[in-house]
Here is the input.
Amino acid sequence: TQDQAPVQQQSHHMICLESGAQAVVFERYQSSSEEVYFRNVLLQIDLADQSGLTYYKLQNENCCAHHISNTMVYQQEFSRFAGLLLAAGSSYARDQLDWQLTHCSAECQWKALVAADQSQQLEVYTQASHLAAQCQSKQEICTLASDRAKVTCHNTIYVEPSAHKTDAKLHNRNVLLSDQVMVNTKPALEIYHDDVKCAHGAT
Here is the structure.
């Protein structure tokens, strides 16, 4: 009812794959009512050697909701992570994703599509941390904004001094459909080794 205080939902999920395991996970956040609430989600993913995870997330909460999500991925040698984010809901939403490529020859691929309209404020923060040799990462973030929407994309590639033979790519593409739209994009590289292949860009 109107006299009730806004609901707060706090959750902590863990996905742990043992050596050689394979899995597909679909995570969906959707609401049909117009109630005001705040959702705070922490997801921790641990991938052992030679394991593989395909991960999908849909965020389509109602226009009064607030959604904050923090995802941490830890990868051992020869592990594979492939993820897709579709974000279109909530009055305010922030997705933060951090990959820790802690052992050699780990790979991660991430794609995100963010669609914002009216007065929505949607944010995507990512960082692929290359902490071991011969790891690969690829990030592709696409945004579509209209009306008075605000979108923020801060995306980073980090390479430690010991992470030689790193192969990392980061691309951010944005489509603005209104003169009142605001899109803030900041692709960044932080590299401490010469023997790497890294590329980033935004359009």
Remarks:
- The mean pLDDT is 94.
